[in-house]
Amino acid sequence: MAEYKSIHGTKVQDYTTDPDNPITGQVWYNETANTLRVQAQTTAGAWATGGSLNTPRAYAGGCGATKDASLCFGDGPPPAPTASGITESYNGTSWTEVNDMNTGKAFVTGAGTYTSAIAAGGDQFSGVAESWNGTSWTSITNEPNGSNAYGSAGADNTNALFFGGVPAPTRTVTRYWNGSSWTDLNAMNGGKKDLEGAGKTYTAALAIGGSAGPPTPLTLTESFNGTSWTEVGDLNTGRRFAAANGTQTSALIYAGSTPPSITNKTEEWNGTSWTETTNYPLSVTGNTGAGADNTNALGFGGSPPETNATLEWTGAGAPQVRTITTD
Amino acid sequence: MAKTYQYCVATNWGKGFIDHVESSRITFASFPGNVWQVPAYNKHGNLWVAKVAGVVKTKDEAQAIVDAEVQAAQATWDALPDAEKAPAVEMNTRPTDITLEE
Fold this sequence. Notes:
The structure holds two protein chains of two kinds.
Chain A: H1 4-8, E1 13-15, E2 27-30, E3 35-41, E4 46-49, E5 61-66, E6 69-73, E7 87-90, E8 95-98, E9 109-112, E10 117-120, E11 129-132, E12 137-140, E13 151-156, E14 159-163, E15 174-177, E16 182-185, E17 196-201, E18 204-208, E19 221-224, E20 229-232, E21 243-246, E22 251-254, E23 257-258, E24 261-262, E25 266-269, E26 274-277, E27 288-293, E28 296-300, E29 310-314, E30 319-324
Parallel strand pairs in A: 1-2
Antiparallel strand pairs in A: 2-3, 3-30, 4-29, 5-6, 6-7, 7-8, 9-10, 10-11, 11-12, 13-14, 14-15, 15-16, 17-18, 18-19, 19-20, 21-22, 22-25, 23-24, 25-26, 27-28, 28-29
Chain B: E1 5-9, H1 20-25, E2 29-31, E3 35-39, H2 43-51, E4 55-57, H3 59-78, H4 82-91
């Protein structure tokens, strides 16, 4: 058997603490822990708890380009007028309270980034919309169909797509916000509410799960190309009021309601199909998601009861220090 | 019948409460009342319960904690004025009963 040195070019070194930037495959001895350790890579994605929200909440809005730069706003239930406009920003370590929305909303939906976002809808303020510039919210033209419980996608506060929702006549409607006005685009193939969305631009979006009316959850996924919707691969577990994030070709969905119970299943979308992966550690519904794709995600909030928990997802292939054991 | 799960009560303190290695090794589930479910007779589950200083509960004890929390949430929801509750009724978000598994 080849020696470690001949393969790796160095001897196994002793450290009192783990080295700062080990390379993949590097082995060392941790004198403090009396263990042999290796710099490995994860073989599957996994969740870890992150800094907790300052305000526990569920059915909130959220958005963010990455898990280290995300925004959470609104709350519910209870719905208006008790609903909250509290907004928090996450930096990868902790949540910080920033300026509130002008109108407290339950079941609000968001799209964009933590410096440029749109919030629309919310129980008794259906269609009410606000724009976030990284510092404060500004009321904008109401979404004309007067809906809420949408799915959403988009780049920023000049490029956002909201689809489905309640009341029933609006469940297939697709609305595009260009920074100054709303335009209805071609409808989805099937009516949905309480659904999730993914996509970093309005021309490449996914509508995921939800329900058609009764609480029975849907497994359906539809993909939007800027002009029309096409049905694509189904979820393995239908769900509503879940959390999702990512793009049209790389997305993640986690937890949610599967009446009469709650699921903690996580599924990855690779552009073609959904695959089950490591479970979400919380049994919640009404949680909210943000993040880049199916390797980078942030889940926060949910109920019952309303929680301030935050979960960070790192996909397979992430650096990971592992202890070498013989048992 | 052998247990599939063990239960404990522990408060999520944020970063480090569950890490990536733990969530890849064991399946967690959480319930109202800070009740956590992890696999029984599992080294990694036992280590995690010890790490978070979890107070171990029998399934029946855990169920009682969960029931009390859910019933309180249902009572709060039911007490909402109808005008406030109406939109949420369509969302069907009244907290539902939860039954823990052995």
